[in-house]
Design goal:
Helix content of chain B: over 70%
Shape of chain A: extended
Structural class of chain B: mainly alpha
Distance between the termini of chain B: 56 Å
Radius of gyration of chain A: 23 Å
Distance between the termini of chain A: 67 Å
Oligomer: heterodimer
Order of helices and strands of chain A: HHHHHHH
Shape of chain B: elongated
Strand content of chain A: under 5%
Largest sheet of chain B: none
Largest sheet of chain A: none
């Protein structure tokens, strides 16, 4: 009973938050709504007994990804409203409905038709985190290491891309120096 | 009232549809990134739900790797976006048609 109440409550909250994130014209509202939706999604993971993924969801998505977005948004002009495409909205909504229907069929068809047996069954004797760790470090060790290398590459790429010209600190320059730098940048672009 | 696998799959589909609406509706690239995050999260829910209802840990492994990939995608994507914003002063999709195709 509690499971049902929790499921419907969090389902409603998640759908509402993600709708706000998609439909609002304010970038800051979209970001905060998305962060809230991420936390509500971790509630589903706890309901499903996947404690480890739930904690990872909170730490990685709300802690790292949304913080990264928040810092990234300081570079952009987020105060003005976001202009949208003026495409025919009926076509857009019809297309998305059709695509979602396709996804349902793709997901449900093999589950309904086949009797799936567990590949790596859940070990009831130990907790979820220990279980995940044992499968991750025995059966999925190579993908795990590849993911680690990929994250390292992404980190270096992010630093190199965003860190260009960061040796000029805007906060420690005087107004005239900033103006001079802007002028020289404009000339360099022309 | 028992919550079954289909409940979670339907919820995941609704969230995926919301993400698709966002992808089709948005012109600002930052907002497009937000919509992609919604898509990835919707898929994660169905992975973990299937993992729970079939007593199989593979789904949770996949959700874990999806989260890792999403994190690195954000790092590289935001870096590129910052560079693009420094060069052109806007991050709209329509401003990127430099090839005149």
């Amino acid at each position: 009973m509690f499971e049902a109440i929790a499921f419907y409550l969090f389902a409603f909250l998640t759908i509402a938050m993600f709708s706000i994130a998609v439909l609002t014209s304010q970038a800051l509202h979209a970001m905060t709504a998305l962060a809230a939706g991420m936390i509500f999604i971790s509630a589903f993971f706890f309901l499903l007994g996947a404690d480890f993924i739930g904690v990872v969801q909170i730490i990685v998505y709300t802690g790292a990804v949304m913080a990264l977005y928040a810092f990234g948004m300081m570079f952009f002009d987020t105060t003005r409203g976001v202009k949208e495409k003026n495409a025919n909205s009926m076509i857009v909504f019809g297309l998305s409905g059709l695509a979602a229907l396709m996804v349902v069929i793709i997901f449900v068809a093999p589950i309904v038709s086949e009797n799936i047996s567990a590949f790596y069954p859940v070990n009831e004797a130990v907790g979820n985190t220990q279980d995940v760790g044992m499968v991750l470090f025995t059966k999925y060790l190579v993908p795990f290491e590849l993911a680690a290398v990929m994250l390292l590459v992404a980190m270096i790429a992010g630093i190199i891309l965003a860190g260009k010209k960061m040796d000029h600190s805007l906060t420690q320059m005087s107004e005239e120096e900033i103006e001079l730098m802007r002028e020289s940048n404009k000339k360099a672009q022309l | 009232m028992e919550i079954t696998l289909n409940h979670y799959l339907v919820l995941s589909t609704i969230l995926f549809a919301i993400g698709l609406v966002g992808v089709m509706r948005r012109k600002n690239l930052l907002m497009l990134f937000f919509a992609t995050e919604i898509l990835l999260n919707a898929v994660n829910i169905s992975f973990v739900a299937i993992s729970h209802y079939y007593g199989d840990l593979t789904g949770q492994m996949f959700a874990f790797f999806v989260i890792a990939i999403a994190a690195s995608e954000v790092a590289v994507g935001l870096g590129l976006l910052v560079v693009w914003f420094k060069r052109t002063n806007n991050i709209d999709l329509d401003a990127m048609t430099s090839m005149r195709g």
